[in-house]
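Today's session is about reading a structure prediction critically. Students often jump straight to the picture, but the first step is always the sequence itself: look for stretches that repeat, for charged clusters, for runs of hydrophobic residues. Only then move on to the predicted structure, which in these notes is written as discrete structure tokens rather than atom positions. Here is the chain we will use throughout the hour.
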Amino acid sequence: MPPVKILLVNPPVCGRSIPEERYGIDSIRRIFRGEPLGLEALAGNLPDHDVRILDLKADPGGLQGALDGFRPELVGFTAVTCEANTVARMAAEVKESGGAVVAVGGIHASCDPSFFNRPGIDYVVVGLGKVRFAELAAAIGSGADTGCLPGVARTDPGGRLDFVSREASAADLAESRPPRYDLVAGYRDRYTLHSLGFRMGFVSSAFGCPCACSFCCISALTGGRYLTHAVETVIADIRSLSDIPVIRLVDANTFGDPRHAEQLAEGILAAGIRKNFVADVRPDTVVRHPELLRLWKRAGLRLAVVGFEEIGDEVLASWRKGGSVAVNDEAISILKDLGITIVGDFIVSPDYDDARFDALEGYVSRRKIDIPIFAVLTPIPGTPLHTAMADRIALDDLDYYTFTNAVVPPLLGEKRFYERYAGLTKTFHDNAKL
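Below is the predicted structure for this chain, in token form.
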């Protein structure tokens, strides 16, 4: 099979801000340039091709130079929802520039694939792309038919996308092919969380989530399945980032399989790895398995990203979150006793009035959440929440789907809502300490 020249592109920092554009409020802007692990994983499974990664978050003006200097035959873009418009425009530019085959994958393509059924894009890849994209590259390189590749659709602008169904399985992890961390070596020093002083590397231990929160888009990648990497695979990836002190386990739910999480922590300890870890964990997992968090503390867990989401049981139930405020409180107590820093995720609804803003601020203050993160409730296309809120959505420009804009009209009125939202962020982030 002839090798294909492949350029994998991480889009630039995208998204627009209503509070900044209309009211001059820029205190809620959050930019973290983390490495594009999804593209590194794709590249790892393309050993027979000439592959490069272009990270436009680190090098915003680099696209044309990469196209001119490399002349790729296949260009692959990834995109979350707020990047979708930008990727569609850039794909058209790539087509006009050199005529390369263009494919788009990632979260938004998996949740709302028809969005990318437009001129300038040749293929849409849904779900876990490591194997699917490699099969597409192989077919292009050999001149084989690409019309029957599972999980890959040829675009038909004006028509419809037709996919051959593919159920996600352990085979999609392609564990024998590690991520190509070397392809972003030139960007490595920029992958820093400046507000916390971390140089951070990304490692995946699992994909998907066994839960079904209505606002979450993660399940679209795996069709609701939860797939774990072998412990040996995860440890090998951690070792590959030997000079990086902090490892972010980027799984949506690192401890979704408690037994696997236990084996991974034991493996890290046995391997003598001395790093700090950041991982996502559900409150109910903390409460059910406090011994697991104690083990992970020994293994180096420094920050736990915990989705508390709301401070009312009725709202949590309506979002199919599971758990309760009482469970959240118990999880906070356990993590504090262990000395694990809590990054607490909370969702601010456009339906908030002043009393609910006051209640949330009081809750976070009393519980002494170390680093609270506040996101505006955003119904992402393809999620159950989007279906439920469709008749209330007033803003469908995906540039604003950054989780810091209200795409549903706020109850308080727009200006007052953003003033209260920005006030929350400023109050707690100015005082955030590790």
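Discussion point for the tutorial: DSSP finds 16 helices and 15 strands in the chain.
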